[in-house]
Design a protein that fits this description.
Layout lengths: L9 H4 L8 E5 L3 H7 L4 H21 L4 E8 L7 H24 L3 E5 L7 H14 L6 E8 L1 H17 L10 H6 L11 E4 L18 E4 L8 H13 L20
Parallel strand pairs: 1-2, 1-5, 2-4, 3-4, 5-6
Helix pairs in contact: 2-3, 3-4, 4-5
The structure holds 3-methylbut-3-enyl trihydrogen diphosphate (2 copies) and magnesium ion.
The site of magnesium ion has 2 residues, from loops.
GO biological process, one term: cell wall organization
GO molecular function: ditrans,polycis-undecaprenyl-diphosphate synthase [(2E,6E)-farnesyl-diphosphate specific] activity; magnesium ion binding
InterPro entries: UPP_synth-like, UPP_synth-like_CS, UPP_synth-like_sf
Length: about 260
């Protein structure tokens, strides 16, 4: 029987609903998902990859501009070595398996985070995937890996300080726009909607600068069970929000970079 609730149906399901331009997701709860079924944590990460596929396809069909997925945080290096190894392996194999299909679907891939922490082979794969898909004009899929919001802000400060030391930038001219220009992907619109699965209500060092006015949605669902249905509900929740950006009257839901 055809799936009547999968990514292919999401446009119909959300017809007439005001959509975000950019969604950012903390994909949490893989370990608990596995443990509840008496399986090792890594089985949850594998199952999580299926949910990634579904959500990426759904966002593409909805013609969103950008989707940022938090795959591995700068703090996740503190996990047991075995788990880190499995996560890196899974990252590599999923990228290898999915890259061609993403490319065929006009997805542009970008990675943010401290890639100097990865082994050379993986670093090369990331650069190659970005180069292959650089001209695509569909969904921009941003994978945050070895990423921390504070790391990104510190990096930007370091870049600006180096430019100032070389005499290229006048410190007095460093305003919010100049700072944004030094972030990893300055041209990507700020996320309109943040989603965290797995029940925790925290940001865990995700896009700290970019989320100043993002709408927050927390789902109890564990990431492997989230899929298209969880995404559709999160977008419906978003569509019911009243975004004011500090003003008195409502802004249209579409994001305003500088309100
Ligand atoms: C999220 O799931 C995936 C990563 C952080 C890499 P977790 O592994 O954090 O799963 P829980 O939160 O322990 O259930
Ligand atoms: C956040 O999840 C990072 C990712 C989903 C990649 P964590 O499971 O690492 O966050 P904490 O430890 O609960 O804050
Ligand atoms: Mg977690």
């Amino acid at each position: 029987m055809a799936d009547t609730n999968g990514p292919a149906q999401i446009s119909e399901r959300l017809a007439g609903v005001e959509l975000p331009r950019h969604i950012a997701i903390v994909m949490d709860g893989n370990g608990r998902w596995a443990q509840r079924q008496g399986q090792p944590r890594y089985a949850g990460h594998r199952a999580g990859a299926r949910s990634v596929r579904e959500v990426v396809e759904a966002c593409g069909r909805l013609e969103l501009e950008a989707l940022t997925l938090f795959a591995f945080s700068s703090e996740n290096w503190r996990r047991p070595r075995g788990e880190v190894r499995v996560l890196m392996q899974l990252f590599r194999t999923t990228l290898d398996q999915e890259l061609q299909r993403l490319h065929e679907n006009d997805v542009r891939l970008s990675f943010i985070g401290d890639r100097t922490q990865f082994e050379a082979g993986l670093q090369r794969r990331l650069t190659d995937a970005e180069a292959l898909t650089a001209e695509n004009t569909g969904l921009q899929l941003i994978v945050a890996t070895s990423y921390g919001g504070r790391w990104e802000i510190a990096e930007a400060a370091r870049r600006l300080a180096a430019s100032a030391a070389r005499g290229e930038v006048d410190p007095q001219s460093i305003d919010e726009d100049a700072f944004r220009g030094a972030l990893s992907l300055p041209d990507v619109v700020d996320p309109d909607l943040f989603i965290r699965t797995g029940g925790e209500r925290r940001i865990s060092n995700f896009l700290l600068w970019q989320m100043a006015y993002t709408e927050l949605h927390f789902a109890e669902t564990l990431w492997p069970d989230f899929g298209t249905e969880g995404l559709a509900r999160a977008i419906e929740d978003y569509a019911a929000r009243d975004r004011r950006f500090g003003a008195v009257t409502s802004y249209p839901l579409k994001s305003v970079r500088h309100a």
